[in-house]
Amino acid sequence: MKSYVTGSMEERADITVKYTLKTLSSCCEALIFVFLGFSIFSKDHKLDIGFAAVTVVTCFAARFLVVFCLTWVVNKWRMQKISLRDQTIMAFGGLRGAICFGLVLTIDQEVVPAKPIMISTTLIVIVFTVFIQGTMIKPLVALLNVKTDEAYDKSLFESCMEHCFEDAMCGVEAIIGTHGQYYWRNKVDKWNTQFLEPALTRQDMNRGRRLLKKLTDMTTDEQREALLHIEMEDEEEAQV
């Protein structure tokens, strides 16, 4: 929804909404983990060690089974295959947190008398996945030498060439008479431009506007960096 929101608000309003939502998200996340912490250290737990151990092992094994099976199916049609190392990281990185805890709290104890045991077991699964798997994921990535994405902002030229490449590939698919990913992407883009954007935005966020906005953002960042550099030089001269 970001493109539709951006096309319906001014820049100042967009910035305000962006940081307001970030603040609310951080506050809600903090409250959730505070509530989880209180729940973990409460005194009314009913533990079933066997049930908890089977649940943790089953969740762990099921995650690997599902990831490996689905990637095996997907790799049949992918040009760039998902490697075994990537599959291992995908399966090992399955963290479970507030959603499963909220779901188990909604169980009616009159219907399911074992609700206290399920709540305690859910908390054990959360602690295992968040603290054990969560702390081991970074060393595992380094051990398996998994390639990670680096923060990279495309230049204006790269964005223009990417659009040209997509249009060219769409034309090639039309010439050879096939309906590939570029054909369907072009169809969705046209449907979005004709129906969704006029209904949900006050101004048309077409490619030209997007490229202009990108150029404006890049220019603003360059000016900000130049001002910071000038301020640092002024401070160094003042100290001298």
Automatic annotation (TrEMBL):
Signal peptide: none annotated. The keyword Lipid biosynthesis does not apply. GO terms for molecular function: potassium:proton antiporter activity; sodium:proton antiporter activity. Residues 13-142 form the Cation/H+ exchanger transmembrane domain. InterPro entries: Cation/H_exchanger_CPA1 (IPR018422), Cation/H_exchanger_TM (IPR006153). One of its GO terms (biological process) is sodium ion import across plasma membrane. It is a multi-pass membrane protein. It is found in: Membrane. Keywords: Ion transport, Membrane, Sodium, Sodium transport, Transmembrane, Transmembrane helix, Transport. It comes from the Eukaryota. One of its GO terms (cellular component) is plasma membrane. The chain crosses the membrane at residues 21-41, 53-75, 87-105, 117-137. Its main location: membrane. This is Na_H_Exchanger domain-containing protein.
